[in-house]
Amino acid sequence: MRQQGRDFCCHGCCTVFELLQENGLGDFYRLADRPGVQVKQATARDRFAFLDEPAVRDSLLDFSDGRLARVTFHVPAVHCVACVWLLENLFKLAEGIGQSVVDFEKKNISITFETGKMSLSGLAALLTSIGYEPTLRLDSLEKPRARSAKGSLYLKLGVAGFAFGNIMLFSICLYSGMDRFSAPTFKPLFGWASLALALPVMVYSAGDYWRAAWLGFRQRAFTIDFPIALGLVALFAQSLYEVGTGSGVGYLDSLTGLVLFLLIGRIFQDQTYQRLSFDRDYKSFFPLAVRRVETAGESSVPLSELAVGDRVRLRHGELVPADARVREGAALIDYSFVTGESEPVQRGMDEVLYAGGQQVGGGIELEIIKPVSQSYLTSLWSHETFAKTRGPDLNSVLNRFSRSFTLGVISLAFAAGAWWWSQDVSRAIRAFTSVLIVACPCALALSVPFALGTAQRLLGRLNVFTRNANVLEALARVDEIVFDKTGTLTTAGNDSVEFCGSPLTRDERGWIHSLAGRSTHPHSVRLANHLMDEPTAGVESFREVVGAGIEGEVDGRKVLLGSEAWLKLHLKAEWNPAMDRSSMADRSPVHVAVDGEHRGVFLLGNTVRDKAAGMLEELSERHELTLLSGDHDREREQFQALLGQRARLHFEQSPIDKLTAIETRQKAGRSVMMVGDGLNDAGALRQSDVGIAVVEEVGRFSPASDVIMEASTVPQLASLLRFARGSVAVVWVSIVLSLLYNVVGLTFAATGRLSPIVCAILMPLSSITVVTFACAAVNWTARRANLFGSPNKEHSS
Amino acid sequence: MTAIYLMLPVSLLLALIFLIAYFWCVRSGQYDDTHTPSLRILSDDAGAVKATSIPTENPSAKNS
């Protein structure tokens, strides 16, 4: 951003600068009287009037006692320290505002305010006026404000750590021979104290393992939690027996240490990207309210109250809330949220608009023809795919392995018990529990979270964010890849702007740049970006004709940019286009005229992403490739060449078509990965085994998916998949490694030498070596898969 | 060595106090956002926010 000859990183810095500039450094506190803010506020307040309706208000407020209330807004514009400072000093800007606390990662602000002096709409208007417009979407009404599971995990970890530390102090005394040379009475005392400390760990900290094991047992799916729970029970039972009979102090140090390590592993794995949401559907981008035209004027109504036949008014930048017919004005609809297609389409009177499109240009009036929930796009969410909740992945490496592992351990324990049963019952029981204790797959359970968690972090550095660590396993299994075309394989990059006509002078390019810079129309924006390096000049008598073009005077010259038909009306001389029409087939033309003379035409097209060809070639060696596009098939040949002759290409696919196409391939036994971007891919992304949502900028809207990936990383897809396969291989090696430890432990158990001290040494030793190996090996795999390799080096050199 | 009979409960009590303090930290939301406080310290008068604000309860106290 540029203001008064200075560059600012964001709106926040700019506002802070303005405020300080106008008021002097010390006078910030008198800001409440600042008229500018309040004028802007008054106009904005109208837009947020719907917030004061009781139903909307109550569902938005976190807390209210009649006098004070608290609300949490999502403010995506939060960008830097200045933003935090400004927003947390909000109380100085208006009366009635109490504390405001910003959560930078989530980009949330929670504000406490006095309901008598400040309304919710006023608050939203105030935020908007200082440049932080809160996003109010349909899903902000139904957000389950549940406490994060993270908090309780920290508490469990705290309890386990507390118990482990104290039990270890007792145990070290005993291991170092304290009971032998001093009073032997300490042994039972320490035993009982340890038992008391271990009890909350068993009940509270390990609670999730009991639940998971019980669930697995009922479903006959022996996940890794099952042998862990068995081992924990065996450890506790053995310890209880030893302390109770006074024969020893048991394995309570190992037990609590085990739980502690497991919980650390969980926290490492459960790392989430708070600023991203992997579960967004259409509700998180549809507005909360629309402006309905009524006999008495306009009013702001919640989207849920919108009925068929209602007339709504849309302004520039607003979304079409439901399938509707144009009743007034020229609609220029940008469907990029829906299809990824960045070119806006023009729709005239009485034509149908589909929900999800964004109006660019002037205001229009629409008549709703279908309820919000049954629109072309939103009806996709009523498909059964969205009703399914995905259970635990029973196919994951660890769970597949643990099934046979669990059965093996249990039969081994019974065999050992049966062997001794005839001779010595107590020894039989001891052998039984020893096997369960030693086979407790602690290192095993830790190797996966640490290996995949590390891989997840490495991918995060590449701006590839996975929903959870298990997604990596699914990535490694993929054997068929489905691409969306527009926005995924192709991009509306600046290189794809081409000029046809006699070459422009530097001055002329500067004029066009200045003029295009004044408009927010996507074509103008792209043109301005394309001519970024050219000089700019002041534009006078600027005018934008919706659906036609823009005009203005630069350096005394009259410059026009726009459609052919519109330009013709303004040309002095008759102009006969003698240009090759075929080259314009799939590109949008922007004609240029200077002083009534046609100068040429800019062709804006979509180009295939840089380096995509190499990536596709590498992918096609191992994977079957498919292209599903909503577009016309005029580019079929180009893409057939790009994806290889074996690739299947389908054009003119509706959102539901895409979903069923994926379903069919899955029924044929394939593991399908979908790479797409728009909402029209949402069904396919959801149905596929791995859905990758491509975004131009991380944090922007993306449909529900397993992976969110920055568009610039798309060419790295091949090395990404290679890395995922490498990481899963590391998991297998870690499993073998931890099995070796189990075998060593079992030999101790079989020869009756499994003393508590051996257990206390073996358990952490195995865990730490396996975890270290897993992390190091994944890092090495990343280097070998060239994950960060060549592109970065090329940059620096 | 009989001192142990006294030291043991005392040391456990001390550790328990720390555990309770930790519980209070987690519950009052100090672990909910670990990033913003590092930015807040960069502005000069961060303390002024609390000094002038109307009395409110803790941001996350309602949830607990």
What this model shows, in words?
- The complex is a heterodimer of chains A (797) and B (64).
- By secondary structure, chain A is α+β, with helices and mostly antiparallel strands.
- In chain A, 46% of the residues lie in helices and 17% in strands.
- Chain A has 27 helices and 30 strands.
- In chain A, the strands form seven sheets. In chain A, strands 16-30-29-28-17-26-27 form a seven-stranded mixed β-sheet, with helices on both faces. Chain A has a six-stranded antiparallel β-sheet with strand order 8-7-9-15-10-13, with no helix packed on it.
- Chain A is elongated, with a radius of gyration of 32 Å.
- Mean pLDDT of chain A is 79; it is low at 24-40 and 791-797.
- The longest helix of chain B has 25 residues, at 3-27.
- Chain B is elongated and about 55 Å long.
- Chain B is mainly α and 64 residues long.
- The model of chain B is unreliable at 46-64 (pLDDT under 50).
- At the A-B interface, helix 4, strand 5, strand 6, helix 6 and helix 8 of A face helix 1, helix 2 and helix 3 of B.
Question: Can you summarize this structure?
Answer:
The complex is a heterodimer of chains A (797) and B (64). Chain A is of the alpha+beta class and 797 residues long.
Search tags:
heterodimer, A: 797 residues, alpha+beta, seven-stranded mixed sheet, B: 64 residues, mainly alpha
Oligomeric category? heterodimer
Radius of gyration of chain A: 32 Å
Number of helices, where a helix is a run of at least 4 consecutive DSSP H or I residues of chain B: 3
Q: In percent terms, what proportion of residues of chain A is strand?
A: 15-25%
What's the average pLDDT of chain A? 79
Radius of gyration of chain B: 19 Å
- How much of the sequence lies in strands of chain B comes to under 5%
Q: Could you say which structural class the secondary elements and strand pairing of chain A correspond to?
A: alpha+beta
